Amino acid sequence: MNLLCRLGSSFLLCMAAFLPCAVPAISQTAESAPSAGTLRDGQHDFDFDLGTWKLHVSRLQQPLTGSARWNELDGTVVVRKIWDGRANIAEVNAVGPSGHLQFLALRLYDPESHQWSNSLASSSDGTLSVPMVGEFKNGRGEFIDQEPFHGRTILVRFVMWPIGSNSARSEQAFSDDGGKTWETNWINTYTRVSGLPPQDAAQQNPDVQPASLRRDGQHDFDFNFGTWKTHISRLQHPLTGSTTWVQLNGSVVIRKIWDGRAQLEEVEAEGANGARFEDLALFLYHPQAHQWSIHFANSKTGTWETPTIGEFKNGRGEFFDQEPLKGRVILVRILWLDITLNAHHFEESYSDDGGKTWEPVFVADVTRAKP
Length: 371
Description:
CATH topology of the largest domain: Lipocalin
Mean pLDDT: 83
Helix content: under 10%
Shape: globular
Largest sheet: 10 strands, antiparallel, barrel
Low-confidence stretches: 1-33, 199-214
Number of helices: 2
């Protein structure tokens, strides 16, 4: 398997090593499945993982072929906390004779299922993998996934455990006989360099450059880096004729990743009567398509929504996707408008007539909080 193969395949699984590859556990019958009340609260299972680590990778060159040749890589992993530990992002860089790995993993905790999902993205293609889902038991994370590999469907097992406060280990193994036998093909060892990483320099001193100066599109969102204040208006019952809006005020923090070819946005806002909005957005640039995909997640569900895809033209960002709403599939449009160095306007609209008409449902005016 080529070391630089597309993320979301076995390579990502493997490296998810440090990015604890959460994977779906074997399903249980309704009679044997534990009730939600008996499930352990695992929202801080990855707290040990936060910080900066040295990484050593041992990777089997040709899994499931009888190969005994391994590649060695060395690098770093930086893991940052989101939502007070209920999510985190891990950025991985590793280099060896076989190539360079650069990717990130986003882990989200689902408070209903008490499980974690792990999604991965590579700087080479700007796409987010299908999330894997799993959990920790007795201090050991063990996850199983089913994936295509060289035309066949195999089982993938990933395990991770902290060895001490300053070291950890993870392993990936493949099985092509339904789990009867397993072949380990990826081993990661981690040594802590420091505790919680500092805030990104991009947050403190955002390097803002208008999108119009960068024609390939990979820096279209440079205006977005930094810390912002926001006022949000949210329509309560979209596509029903409702005119009732909820008003919220809060903050937006946006961090640069891969020199601007990706970014992570955290939004927190509050309104009257206990209304609260806590959202996460991952922006990824696809260098071949020259487009951006935006993946949204909310802390209440801990899952990713359908990605919105689009681009900037003439200083205006326009993005579309299809989503289910009350049993129907509708169009969703997101716009970035009126962009200046210190302010911009965000608007999300729905259409249930194929784009002939649009109803705004989420409007945000954003003002830079730091010069």
